[in-house]
Amino acid sequence: MLLFRQKIFKSLMHILPVTETNLHIYHNLAQCYEAEFSPLTGKKPDESGFFALDTAIRDHVLGYLLYIGETPAGLAAIASKENNCFEMCEFYVVPLFRKNDAGMRFAHAIWTRHHGTWEIKQIEGAEYATAFWRKAIQRFHDTPYNEDHYNDPYWGNVLRQTFTITSSSIQNLS
Prior knowledge:
Elements: H1 2-12, E1 13-17, H2 23-41, E2 61-68, E3 71-81, E4 85-93, H3 102-113, E5 116-123, H4 127-138, E6 146-152, E7 156-165, H5 167-171
Parallel strand pairs: 4-5
Antiparallel strand pairs: 1-2, 2-3, 3-4, 5-7, 6-7
């Protein structure tokens, strides 16, 4: 049954860039993301029940939505920096879809689209996120990565992975 589910999820998975027409879907999923991390961030919803978002989709920040069939299943926000450098600012997959490697395939699809140097950070206490990112990076064609503790100006002490995706490393996959 699980193998059947994985094949269905994989065949129905598609990724869309965030635009003005689907930005509201990104914002809705971002509320789930913020709520999930609230025990670690200490964030509370405002008087209307909404969490403030840390990353706005605009200018140098690209957004993506993951769909499984017609269902919005995840989001990503990627900061595009100078010299082909990228930071995964936000990444979330609805828990129902996590056990089917949808998150890993989502991350791999993003890296395939954006060649360059990548940076991914996890706040203290997010061990499950760290385990996910280590596995996702390693399974992306055995990509070597560096990991260090970093004092982020916004988040404080974080664990950070850095790695580089080149067009030749993608071409060597075939």
